[in-house]
Amino acid sequence: MKIYFQVAGVLPIFDSAVCLVIQPSYLIFMLKNLNCMFYSSLEILDFVESLYELLGGSVSVTAIGHVSHTKKNWEHGRLFSLQDQIDHKMDFIQHELKNIDAPILLVGHSIGAYISMEMFRRSPEKVIYYVGLYPFLALNSESRKQTTIGKISASPILCAALSSIVAFLGLLPRWASGFIVSNSLGKSWSSTAVEALCSHLLKYHTIRNVLYMAMTEFTRLSEPLDWVFMREKRSQIAFLFGIDDHWGPLQMLEEISKQAPDVALSIEREGHSHAFCCTEVGSLWVAQHVANLIKNQISSAD
C-alpha cells in the first residue's frame, strides 16, 4: 500500500481526500472538507488500511486533498473555494493520471461526495463507478448546526476570531491539546484521529480555509442537483446514508429515490456517525460496505 501526501500541490499526489488504486482500476476517495469535524488525511488511515485489507491487499493507495487544509501554510494565507478544490482534484486526474490507461472509481465522503460527483460529470468517459458516503449534496434547512456554520462562515470577523482561538489551542503542548480534544469533540475518536487533529489542524490558515470553503459550499449547494446526469448513470452510482445525519439526511435519500429510482441506496443502522473515519469500528464497518460494493460492481461488469 502506498500513501502519498500532497501539500497544496507541492508534491505529486495528496492532503486530505484519498485515492485508492485498484488494479487495473483507479479508485479515488474524496473526504469531507475540514468544516465542523476537522477531518484530515491522517484521520482516515484506519478506513484506508481496512479497505486495503478487505480488497485483498492488491491496492495502491494515494490521497488527494484540499489545498491549504494542511499543517504547513504552503499557500501563504490564500483562501480556496469549493470550485477551486474541485478544479484541484480534476487537475490530478488530467495530469497525474493522463498516462494511466485505467478506469476510475470515485468514493466521496460528505462534501467529498459532491466533489466526486462533479468529477464524475466532468470525466464520464473515465469513471466507471461512484460511491457517496454520508453525502452532503444539498443544504438542510432544518439543521441548526448548518445555520450556525453558515452565519459564522459568512462573517470575516467571526472567521478571524474563531481561527485565532483554534490557532491558540495549537500553541499548547501536545499533551494539553490532546487532552482537550479527547474530552470534548473527540471522546470516541481513535488515537490516530486525535493526533491528526492536534498536529495538523489547529492552525490559523487551516481554519480560515475551512470556513471559507464552507461559505462557498453553502452557496453552491443551494443550487439543484443534476438529476438528469444521475438518472443517466444510475447503474454506476451508490449512496450510503446515516440514520441521524444532518449533513446527509434521509430526506435526501428519499429525494434521490424519487428523482433517480434505480440508484443503489443504503442506510447504515449500526450507530456510526457522520465522523465514522474518526473511530476504528466505524472505519472498519464502512470499509467493509465499500469493499462489498466495489467487488459486486466489478464482478457484474466482468
TrEMBL record:
Residue intervals passing through the bilayer: 6-29
GO CC annotations, alphabetized: lipid droplet
Keywords noted in UniProt: Hydrolase, Lipid droplet, Membrane, Transmembrane, Transmembrane helix
Compartments (UniProt record): Lipid droplet
Chief location category: other
Gene3D superfamilies according to UniProt: alpha/beta hydrolase
A Gene Ontology BP annotation from the UniProt entry: lipid storage
Pfam families xrefs: LIDHydrolase
SUPFAM superfamilies: alpha/beta-Hydrolases
Entry keyword Hydrolase: yes
GO molecular function: lipase activity
Family recorded in the similarity comment: Belongs to the AB hydrolase superfamily. LDAH family.
Designated name of the protein: Lipid droplet-associated hydrolase
Organism expressing this protein natively: Vitis rotundifolia
